Amino acid sequence: PSMASGHLCKLHSCASRLLYGATLRNVQSKCCFYSYEVEIGVTSDGKTIVCYHPAVDVPYELTQPIERPDPLTNQAETHDQVLKAHLSKEVLDGKKGPTIEELSKMFFTTKHRFYPKGQYVSRRINKTPPKDR
C-alpha cells in the first residue's frame, strides 16, 4: 500500500463517520504548545467535506525577527555574482563545464534547450536572414 492510499483510506473513514454522524463537529487538536479549533462538516448532499481552520496566534516569545540588511552598506547581488557562485572553482574542479542538468537548474529552464539540434533542424534554419531596411 502506498502513502496516497493510506491518506485516502483515512479520508474515507473520516468522511463515512461524518456522513453517519452529525453534520458539524468540533475537533480539538494539540500541536506542540497550543491548541486550535478545527470545524469539519459535510454538505447537505454528502459529496463535499468542508473544513474550517482559523489562523493560529503564535506567542511572541517563539518568533524571530526578519533580517533586513541595510541597503546602503550591503549591495544587492548582480547576475554576474550569482553565476560566479554557481560556477565556482569547487563546482568546476576536474570538469570541462557544467552538465546539462546543472545548466537547466542554473538558468531555470528545461534541459532540452542545451542539447544539440539535429541535422533536420539545422538545415531548415535560414543561413542568410533578410537585411533590415
UniProtKB/TrEMBL annotation:
* Domain of life (superkingdom): Eukaryota
Name of the molecule in the record: Large ribosomal subunit protein mL42
Q: Which Pfam families match?
A: MRP-S32
| Keywords linked to the UniProt accession | Mitochondrion, Ribonucleoprotein, Ribosomal protein, Transit peptide
Q: Does the keyword Magnesium apply?
A: no
- UniProt cross-references to InterPro entries, sorted A to Z: Ribosomal_mL42
> Record's family?
Belongs to the mitochondrion-specific ribosomal protein mL42 family.
- Can you list the GO cellular component terms from the UniProt entry? mitochondrial large ribosomal subunit
List where in the cell it is found. Mitochondrion
Its principal location?
A: mitochondrion
